[in-house]
Specification:
Largest sheet of chain A: 4 strands, antiparallel
Largest sheet of chain B: 3 strands, antiparallel
Distance between the termini of chain B: 83 Å
Strand order of the largest sheet of chain A: 3-4-5-6
Largest interface: A-B, 82 and 54 residues
Mean pLDDT of chain A: 93
Radius of gyration of chain A: 27 Å
Radius of gyration of chain B: 21 Å
Number of helices of chain A: 12
Structural class of chain B: alpha+beta
Low-confidence stretches of chain A: none
Number of domains of chain B: 1
Strand content of chain B: 25-35%
Oligomer: heterotrimer
Helix content of chain A: 25-40%
Chains: A alpha+beta (367), B alpha+beta (157), C alpha/beta (201)
Number of strands of chain A: 6
Low-confidence stretches of chain B: 1-11
Distance between the termini of chain A: 45 Å
Number of helices of chain B: 5
Number of strands of chain B: 3
Mean pLDDT of chain B: 90
Shape of chain B: globular
Strand content of chain A: 15-25%
Structural class of chain A: alpha+beta
Helix content of chain B: 40-55%
Order of helices and strands of chain B: HHHEEEHH
Amino acid sequence: MYVAVKGGETAIQNAHRLLADRRRGDRSLPAITIEQVVEQLGLAVDRVMAEASLYDRSLAALAVRQARGDMIEAIFILRAYRTTLPRFGSSEPIDTAGMKIERRISATYKDLPGGQLLGPTFDYTHRLLDPSLIGDGAVAEPARKEPGEAVMRVSDILDSDGLIEGDGTMPEGNVPGDLTREPMEFPMPRDLRLQALARGDEGFLLALAYSTQRGYGRTHPFVGEIRIGEVEVELDLPELGFAVSLGVIRVTECQMINQFKGSANEPPQFTRGYGLVFGQSERKAMSMSLVDRALRTEEFGEDIVAPAQDQEFVISHADNVQATGFVEHLKLPHYVDFQAELDLVRRMRRDYEAARDGEGDMKEAAE
Amino acid sequence: MSATEKRADPSEPAAERRDAIRHLARATLAELSAAWEAIADKPEVAPVRGPETGLVMVRGRIGGGGDPFNLGEATVTRATVRLSGGEIGHGQLLGTDKERARYAAIFDALFQSPAHRPAVKALQRQIAARLLAEERRKAEETAATRVDFFTMVRGED
Amino acid sequence: MTAQSQIYAGGFADPEFEAQSVFRTLMDCFARPGRIGRLTALATPPSPLGMASGAVALTLCDHDTPVWLSSALVKSAAPNWIAFHTGAPVIELKDEARFAFVERDGAVPGFDQFALGTAEYPDRSTTLVVEVDALTGGRPFIGRGPGIKDEVVIAPKGLPDLFLDLWAANRALFPRGIDLVLTAEESVLCLPRTTRLSIKG
């Protein structure tokens, strides 16, 4: 039996109106401005940019406001907006070595050239809820000090001993793969995996990273370096014959250093995982670097024993827009499917009852 | 040589123009419009393309120094204009601000006109000074958070 | 016109709407093969790229579609014009091109030299845009197939002599193969690979 399904247009219009009302909330309160979200909820903006895979602070802030703070909803909105814009080209690869450093720490070297620069970190707060933030009290200007020596890359320090593998290379003549243009196919090369991880859900990657530390594909990791700051984005202009600067973006980079005992072809050395994310997103960059290393098991002749090492599992489920699309689609009318299921279950039930009654008869007959 | 060809002199150092474009991409709307207002003999400006907003795929390097990979896209707005003197200027910058992109294109075109280049260079100096001050301030604030391990040394005396 | 002004001039004055109208016409003409569609939006590309071919380029080509150009077009200002107005990379390898352009009276390479798609992705093929003398008045062919009610007469003027053989060879590769847009003056005539052509009479 078919049930005619029609969208209730009036119901939907009214639902949208109700949503707008709930989003605005108490009218006696001032509305949140986009500028306030950009400035004061900057890390939310950063997460939305990273997972929507679109760097634009104002648009991400608008998405956060529109989504009433539902991060994945905001990511969805911004990711959808992306599809309305034409692609002008690809930038020159950003130079994180030339970053204007806002934070730089290393867990492997205490007193490295350039020093440990804590930046605006939460790390040493005591995680006590702060009642002073209830009001709008004055906030002091930050302390200032004369900048010291230049900041040197940790991987360069280790490299001089020849004990650490080099930066990642792709096959000769490789054009970086693009998930937004090609269907996903496995096995997936590292450049595409990194693109997928960079836009991957922070919670999912955090859990997988945690799993590698708990022994599901153990790699003995150390944070070689985390750096956060602004880098220049340059675009080659054929009309001019050279690349021009478009401005700067903020990124977080994590170099994770892992032990490798060596194999038939490779000597014992430190291997690396790499994390690079839009905005100030340290947890995400660290998780990304741990998962990046886990996904490289086959390169080192290691066995795939854990979910974090399984490319198809990790990459297929990392994108929260894709994930929510399929999970939330279950809300759509499945009335016809369900009627069919209902009929089937009823029939199976009748067969089951009949079989049971039949056994009962046989039992009686036997007695 | 026609007047147009003379202005588009290919022997002009690309580095200087590149530098001007870098500063123009960071200019605020206030800086750009004020500089434009200050020009006495404004040339006519005709649009060639845009201003239009699109995407640029930002690339990173694997490991930080290795082969490129696609990190994610950024909004970019660009414009190309032609001045009455024939100069073609290109403006392109991160974000969605069409006015800024248009002004950046105008000043890139003005840069190629010997008569107007001083005005562009003055604007450049202004932008550079502001950026330098901002970078300096941020560097000093970051430096104040540098861990000074030596102050933890306990003296016996 | 100086080389520089040739590059920057001649694009759509109102890109969104003009590209949409050209796209609509192309879509209709691919859906009804043999129909002649008159473009209401035209481009003025550098010669020898024609107005209708130029409009097709502005509408369909972008950063993701490598473009192959005939040798006469490569020597003109067309590569820079296409690069500026569409962002499309102009390449030398025919079998990597998504679009290929040949000017009026230019030599048309054998279709099988272009990208023909794969069994899994037959659409990863080249669309050829060839300017001819006229879309009517030439040797008539009968066209049959999807989008054609019974049959249609197609008679473009200025096709290569071996055109029917080239087309038959393309048909033999189905579902792989190339698709064709013929342009003349301000009009287009589209031949998807699904259309069968035979000599009239």
